[in-house]
Amino acid sequence: MSSTTTIETISKPNIGVFTNPDHKLWVEETGPKTDDLKAKKGEDLPEGWVTVAIKSTGICGSDVHFWRNGAIGPMVVTDNHILGHESAGVVIATHPSVTHLQTGDRVAIEPGLICNNCEQCLTGRYNGCEKMRFLSTPPIDGLLRRYVNHPAIWCHKIGDMTFENGALLEPLSVALAGMERAGVALGDCVLICGAGPIGLITLLCCQAAGACPLVITDIDEGRLEVASKICPRVKTYKVDTSLSPSDAGAAIVKIAGDVKPAIAMECTGVESSVANAIYSVKFGGKVFVIGVGRPEMSLPFMRLSTQEIDLQFQYRYSNTWPRAIRLVRDGVIDMRQMVTHRFDLEDAVKAFETSGDVKSGAIKVMIQSEINS
Fold first, then answer.
1. How distant, in Å, are the alpha carbons of 20, 304, 373 from that of 81?
2. pLDDT, the chain, mean
3. Is pTM beyond 0.85 here?
4. How far is it, in rounded angstroms, from Cα 350 to Cα 347?
5. Dihedrals φ, ψ of 20, to 5°?
6. Phi, psi at residue 251, to the nearest 5°?
7. CA 264: distance to chain centroid?
8. Is the pLDDT score of 149 beyond 90?
9. Cβ atoms of 91 and 101 closer than 8 Å
């Protein structure tokens, strides 16, 4: 039976990063309270839960969107709300029922809490859980705190992996879910639309899978330079917004050496980018949309129809974390160059301002709390 004794000094208050319907952003004290953590040492945790001291959290585009726009589709910020869902840290307390984790274990947190009763959960596609509570998606508070309580089953051991890499397992999971469902195969010509964090990680996955040639698009030259740095053989295309989707598609095919992509991994959710992808892929190809866009958009239906193009979508991930851990641990996927900025938890407002500023050159902004290993 695992110990319930905390192993590190809890000397600072538990603080979190909040937003609200007025689009304010601030840091203030939150739960679980430090005094309770010191006194109870896991004894009051729900069965199967642990307390984790969060060490690194990446800022996701959805975090910035909830702050600035207050909603993503039907998910609306209606009250004070804690952000963040890309986190890793160290276990500092456990409920006595937890036997596979001990205090001191380094873990990455999978942020979805599921019902385990609906068809999607019972068939292994738990990302579609009918009662999903996904941390940082309103009204469920997120992980951008110094301490959090979480079910042990969703705390994945990362061994001696850095906390930053542990935090990056969440966006890697998004890319891995897309890779699996899109069916990227050795030798496929693949187009990746968008060179943000998800697009760049998807690029790394396609490279590891042996896709070739690889093409990535973006409107920002700086992000395309990062893409070339992390994957030297990728061909880059700076999107010309004055072109029609058919002309943009032709330009992409030309850059690919006149090879039409078998699969386009669309990582922006932008209507014009989805259309460009549809005009790029070959007859019988696939446009796989990972990106999150507007609630409704117009698409070139007849192009999809006459070219027998499959249009497929993704919502989060399931059963990806063990694979993600192995890929990073064994050096197959190296995301370290994507981290462009680091801030202390107390400076989270500045971190968000940097992440949301297109002129900052930020790719992945990390928020850290008392990193000492």
1. 6, 40, 30
2. 95
3. yes
4. 6
5. -155, 180
6. -65, -40
7. 19
8. yes
9. yes
Secondary structure, 3-state, the chain: CCCCCCCCCCCCCCEEEEECCCCCEEEEECCCCHHHHHHHCCCCCCCCEEEEEEEEEECCHHHHHHHHHCEECCEECCCCEECCCEEEEEEEEECCCCCCCCCCCEEEECCEECCCCCHHHHCCCHHHCCCCEECCCCCCCCCCECEEEEEHHHEEECCCCCHHHHHHHHHHHHHHHHHHHHCCCCCCCEEEECCCHHHHHHHHHHHHCCCCCEEEEECCHHHHHHHHHHCCCCEEEECCCCCCHHHHHHHHHHHCCCCCCCEEEECCCCHHHHHHHHCCCCCCCEEEECCCCCCCCCCCHHHHHHCCCEEEECCCCCCCHHHHHHHHHCCCCCCHHHEEEEEEHHHHHHHHHHHCCHHHCCCEEEEECCCCC
Q: Is the pLDDT of residue 312 over 90?
A: yes
Tokens of 167: 């935090």
* Residue of higher predicted confidence among 300 and 37: 300
Which residues does 330 contact at the CB level (< 8 Å), separation at least 6?
A: none
User: Which tokens hold the place of 37?
Assistant: 């953590």
In angstroms, rounded to a whole number, what is the distance separating the alpha carbons of residues 192 and 177? 15
- Residue 50 is encoded by which pair of tokens? 């642990």
